[in-house]
Amino acid sequence: MARQVVVLGSTGSIGLSTLDVLRRHEGEYSCFGLSANTDIQGLFNQCKSFKPRYAVMADLSAAKELDVLLNADDLPTKLIASTQALEELAAHSEVDIVVSGIVGAAGLLPTLAAVQAGKTVLVANKEPLVMMGDEIVRQAKQYGAALLPVDSEHNAIFQCLPLNASAKDASCAELINKGVRKLLLTGSGGPFRGLPLEQFAQITPEKACAHPNWQMGKKISVDSATMMNKGLELIEACALFELPPDRIEIVVHPQSAIHSMVEYVDGSILAQMASPDMRVPIASALAWPARIDSGAEPLDLIKLARFDFEAPDFKRFPLLQLASDAAQSGGTVPTVLSAANEVAVDAFLAGRLAFTDISRVVDASLQVIEFSADRSLESVLAYDTKAREAATKSLHQLAA
Prior knowledge:
Helices cover about 45% and strands about 15% of the residues. By secondary structure, the protein is of the alpha/beta class. It has a seven-stranded parallel beta sheet, sandwiched between helices. It has a four-stranded mixed beta sheet with strand order 9-8-10-11, with helices on one face.
C-alpha cells in the first residue's frame, strides 16, 4: 500500500521538488494533502495532477477563488480554508509522512502537530528548529516520531553518521558519542562571497536572489546572500544532533558539491556529495533507510575538477556572527534572531530596506529584547511577536 504523504507548502521550491520525486514513485507514495498560502493557480494545478484528498489554503480570499476552480473541474479534493487546518492535516490518522516545507515561523505549529501525532516528519524549513528545535527533538522521542532533515546540509550529516540509527530516533543523539569529533557544515558563501564590501550597499533584491548554484525561494535566497542561512543551520544542527556549537564548524565551499561532512576521532572525514538539487535530500529522507531515484543529474566529478574550502568572513557577513552568538546563548535568542530576520528580509525584498541594513535590524532587535531560558511553545510564540514588533520599530527608525 502506498504511503500517504502531506506536503505543507507544496507550491514553494521544496514542495515542487517533493512532488517531482513523488511523481516518479506513484505506486509507493500517494499525496494525501497539499497546502499553500496564496498561490491559487499553483495549488489548483497540483490538485488536478495529484488529486489529494485535502487541500489547505491559508489565505481566505485565495481559498474562495480556488474553490470555484476545484468545483468547475469536479475534482475530488476537499478544500479547507484556515491556518489551523494545517495542524489537523499534519496529524491526520491516515497520514504516514509529513513534509514541512512552509517558509518562516508559520511552519512551527503544523510541524509540532505532526511530531505529536508520531508521524515521519521531513523537516525542510529552518525556522521551527531554530525557534524550539531541542523541544521538537524531545517530543519526537516522546511521541515516537521520526524526525528526518531535508535541508541539504543536515541531510548530508545524517547520511554520514553511523548507520545504526532507528526510524524512531532519527536525531542520532545516541550516536554522537560513538566516535564523532565534530560536524563540518558547508556553505557556498552565496553570490557576494567575492564582492567588495563597499558595493554591498548597492545590492538589489534581484541580485540577492540570483544564487550561483541553487534554485530557491526568495527568502532563503536572501538568507544565503547574507549567510544567515548558515547561521540558522548551525542552530538547527545543535538541536537535531544534540551537539554544542563548538563541535560544529562552518566551512565555505563555493562549488556546493560537498553538502556537509562528519569528522571522526580516528581522523576520518566522511562527506556526502551530490549535485546541488533539493530532490536528492528529499528522496533520501522519503525512502530512508532505503534509496530511490530522485531525478537529479549525477555529480560529474571530472567536470567539477576541484574542491575549494575557506573560512567564513564574519566581517563581510555580520548576520553569521549574530547567529553564532545566538547558538551559544540559547533560550529565546534564536527565536528573536529568526523573527527579526524575517521582518528585515521582507522589507528588503519590498525595496524598503538596504541589504546592509538587514543585519542592523536584527542586531537592534536582539539588543532590546531580554533573554529568557523558557523554550515552551507559549514563550517562543510570545518572543516571536516581540521580535517582530522590535524589528518593525527598527525599520521605522532607519527610514526616519
